[in-house]
Amino acid sequence: MELRAYIVRRLLLIIPVLFGVTLLIFGLLQLFSPVERVALYVTSPRQFASVAEMIAKYGLDQPVWVQYGRWITEIFQGNLGWSKVVSQPVTSAMLNFLPATLELAIFATPLIIFG
């Protein structure tokens, strides 16, 4: 019975910790202006004209609490955004790299344990 209460307590602690982590990450992202955040995805000088459109499209001109609500909703729906590195959605990239990650984890675990 004591173990069950401990597990329930620990599981309930996950909620405020996750909330705090999301607030921290979102707050760090807010250190950059909307123009700076959009400029990361602009690749040619001709696209700079569309920066204002991109800011409106992604809701970066909305109040911070609206942006946070939209951001957290997208995360819970599995939409983690677009990866510039692999030019595909982040969720797809994670799934593509999952087999290699699991292989590394499986082979590294005995090395860590028995090292």
TrEMBL record:
What InterPro entries does the annotation carry? BPD_transp_1_N
Q: Where is the ABC transporter type 1 GsiC-like N-terminal domain?
A: 6-79
Concerning Pfam families, the annotation shows:
BPD_transp_1_N (PF19300)
Localization, per the record, is: Cell membrane
Q: Which residues form a coiled coil?
A: none
Membrane protein topology class: Multi-pass membrane protein
Membrane-crossing residue ranges in chain numbering: 12-32, 93-114
Q: Which UniProt keywords apply?
A: Cell membrane, Membrane, Transmembrane, Transmembrane helix, Transport
Chief site of localization: membrane
Name a single GO cellular component: plasma membrane
Q: What is the protein name for this chain? A: ABC transporter type 1 GsiC-like N-terminal domain-containing protein
Q: What is the species listed in this Swiss-Prot or TrEMBL entry?
A: marine sediment metagenome
